[in-house]
Amino acid sequence: MTDLTQPGAEPQKPGSRRLKYALIASLALNLLILGTVAGAMYTFGKHPPPRPGHMRGEDFGLMGLSREFPEDRRKEFRKQLRDDRAQLKPMMEEIRVARRGAADKLGAQPFDRAALEAAIATVAEKERAFRQAAVSLFLGHAEQLTPDERQKLADWWRKKSEPPKPRALKKDKAKDAKAEGAGDE
Fold first, then answer.
1. What pLDDT digit, counting tens, does each position of 54-76 carry?
2. How far apart are alpha carbons 67 and 173 in whole angstroms?
3. Whole-angstrom Cα distance, residue 105 to residue 114?
4. pLDDT digits over 21-46, tens only?
5. Which of 17, 20, 69, 165 is placed for a possible disulfide with 74 were both Cys, Cβ 3.0 to 4.6 Å?
6. What is the DSSP string of 93-120?
7. Number of H helices and number of E strands within the chain?
8. How far apart are the first and last CA of the chain?
9. Fold category of 62-161 in CATH
10. CA pair distance 161, 94, nearest whole angstrom
């Protein structure tokens, strides 16, 4: 019988195969974690988390519109918007308290449907009152806008109300456009 091992090479130990698979699995896990962190870092600036205490939507796009105002008007207008937020803040806290109360009713033992229904109705009423106050403040600001500014804000509203375009379709259209361009030659 001939020995096929090379001179100086040691035979493989039985545990080395397991170690090899463990190292491969560890490498795969590390790459997965690295990819997740890199992806989160890449998209972080694109979709920043809302600031604590910041109420989205109560300015109806006025803060963004004010970027186009002259400096002196922008400062005064933004001060008015901050004052509006301060006025709405207690109402938001009332909504949070009502939501926590509803959550408590939901988790209570024994379950009381009527109590939960009443708590949800309270949340809805607080949200309705908040929305009504926010709309009232917005209407006051809308009266102060020039016709051109109102039109810009209306255009922004229209754009925001359009359904988002699926990303996959954008990629497919780009591929289709490339294929059509290549086929024309």
1. 444 556 777 777 777 788 888 88
2. 34
3. 10
4. 888 988 888 888 888 888 777 776 55
5. 69
6. HHHHHHHHHHHHHHH-SS--HHHHHHHH
7. 6, 0
8. 66
9. Four Helix Bundle (Hemerythrin (Met), subunit A) (1.20.120)
10. 29
